[in-house]
C-alpha cells in the first residue's frame, strides 16, 4: 500500500474509532457469553482472586484456582460452587517457580482441558525501602509479580493461538506506570507486567490472532490487607478501592474486551498528564496528590500472593 492510501486509511479509521468510542459513552458495550469456558485464576486463595472466582462462577464458567494456600483455595472453591460454577478445580502452585508452573499447567490440561481465560492475579509486596529490602525478597517480588506471567503465558497461550480464541488478563497496578517512593521493587515488577502484557497483545494483533483478547488492570491501592495502613491524601479523587467493586469492574472489562482498565477513573487523566508534563511539574503534582510520597503502610511480604 502506498503512502497516500495508507494515510487515508489511518485518517478514516481514526475518525471511526473516535466515533465508536463516543457512541459507547451512551450505549453500553455488548457483553460476550463465557458460560462453559475454563477460567484459571492465580492467587485465588484470598482477596481479589477469591472475589473474581465468585464473579466468574456466577457466569457458569469452569474454574481452575491456583495458590500456595491450600485452605484458602478450598474456601474459594466452596464459595465459587455456591455462586454457580459448573466445575471447580484447585491446585497448589508456587507461581514464582517456573518448573512448578509448567508441571501444574500440564496437569490442568490433562485433567480439565485448555484454558480459555487466564487471570494472572498473584502478587506480593515487600513494603521496604529499596536499600532495606533483602535481595531474596526483591527477587521473589519480581518472580511472582512479573516473571510468573511469562511462564503462565508460555503454558496456556499456544492453545489460545491455535484456536484464535481466549483472553489474557493481567492484574497489574497504577504502580505499573507511576513510580512510588518506598515501593521500588514492587513498581519495577508491575511496570514489567504492564509492558509484557501490552507487548504480547500487540504481537497477537500483528500475527492476525485477534480472537485472543488482552485486558490489563491497573488499580490504585485496594483494601484487601496487602497494604494495611495505607492512607490516601485525597480520598474523593484517589480513594482506597473497595475489593468487591474492583472485582466487578474487572469482570465487566473482560466481558467487553476492554484492553486497559484503570481505577479510579481519575488515573486516566493522571497517567496522561505524566506523559506530557515536564518532569519537575510531574513530581510536584505527584507529591501534591500523594502519588509519589513515601507509602506509609503496615505491610510485609505476603507469601499468600494477595493482590495489590
How would you briefly describe this protein structure?
This protein has 308 residues and is α/β, with parallel strands linked by helices.
Top keywords for this entry?
308 residues; alpha/beta; Rossmann fold; 7-stranded parallel beta sheet; 48% helix
What does this structure look like?
By secondary structure, the protein is an alpha/beta fold. The protein has one domain: 3-Layer(aba) Sandwich (Rossmann fold), CATH 3.40.50.720. Helix content is 48%, strand content 13%. It has helices at residues 3-23, 47-57, 70-83, 98-111, 135-163, 184-206, 243-255, 266-276, 279-289; strands at 38-42, 62-67, 87-92, 117-120, 166-171, 212-219, 260-263. Strands 3-2-1-4-5-6-7 form a seven-stranded parallel β-sheet, with helices on both faces. β4 (117-120), α5 and β5 form a beta-alpha-beta unit. α2 (47-57) crosses α7 (243-255). The termini are far apart. 40% of the residues are buried. Residues 296-308 have low confidence and may be disordered. Keywords: NAD, Oxidoreductase. GO terms for molecular function: oxidoreductase activity, acting on the CH-OH group of donors, NAD or NADP as acceptor. One of its GO terms (cellular component) is lipid droplet. This is Short chain dehydrogenase/reductase family 16C, member 5a.
Amino acid at each position: 500500500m502506498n503512502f497516500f492510501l495508507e494515510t487515508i486509511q489511518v485518517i478514516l479509521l481514526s475518525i471511526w474509532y473516535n466515533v465508536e468510542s463516543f457512541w459507547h459513552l451512551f450505549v453500553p458495550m455488548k457483553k460476550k457469553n463465557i458460560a462453559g469456558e475454563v477460567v484459571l485464576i492465580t492467587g485465588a486463595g484470598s482477596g481479589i482472586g477469591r472475589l473474581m472466582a465468585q464473579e466468574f462462577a456466577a457466569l457458569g464458567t469452569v474454574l481452575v484456582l491456583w495458590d500456595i494456600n491450600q485452605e484458602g483455595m478450598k474456601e474459594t472453591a466452596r464459595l465459587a460452587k455456591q455462586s454457580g460454577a459448573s466445575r471447580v478445580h484447585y491446585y497448589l502452585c508456587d507461581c514464582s517457580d517456573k518448573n512448578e508452573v509448567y508441571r501444574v499447567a500440564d496437569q490442568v490440561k490433562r485433567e480439565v482441558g485448555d484454558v480459555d481465560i487466564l487471570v494472572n492475579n498473584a502478587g506480593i509486596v515487600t513494603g521496604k525501602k529499596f536499600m532495606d529490602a533483602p535481595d531474596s525478597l526483591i527477587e521473589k517480588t519480581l518472580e511472582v509479580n512479573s516473571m510468573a506471567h511469562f511462564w503462565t503465558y508460555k503454558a496456556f497461550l499456544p492453545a489460545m493461538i491455535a484456536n484464535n480464541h481466549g483472553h489474557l488478563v493481567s492484574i497489574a497496578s497504577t504502580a505499573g506506570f507511576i513510580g512510588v517512593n518506598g515501593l521500588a521493587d514492587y513498581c519495577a515488577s508491575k511496570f514489567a507486567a504492564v509492558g509484557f502484557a501490552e507487548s504480547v497483545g500487540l504481537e497477537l494483533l500483528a500475527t492476525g490472532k485477534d480472537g485472543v483478547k488482552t485486558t490489563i488492570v491497573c488499580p490504585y491501592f485496594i483494601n484487601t490487607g496487602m497494604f494495611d495502613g495505607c492512607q490516601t491524601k485525597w480520598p474523593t479523587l484517589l480513594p482506597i478501592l473497595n475489593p468487591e467493586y474492583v472485582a466487578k469492574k474487572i469482570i465487566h472489562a473482560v466481558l467487553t474486551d476492554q484492553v486497559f482498565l484503570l481505577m479510579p477513573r481519575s488515573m486516566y487523566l493522571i497517567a496522561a498528564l505524566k506523559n506530557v508534563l515536564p518532569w519537575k511539574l510531574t513530581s510536584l503534582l505527584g507529591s501534591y496528590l500523594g502519588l509519589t510520597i513515601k507509602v506509609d503502610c503496615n505491610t510485609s511480604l505476603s507469601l499468600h500472593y494477595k493482590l495489590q
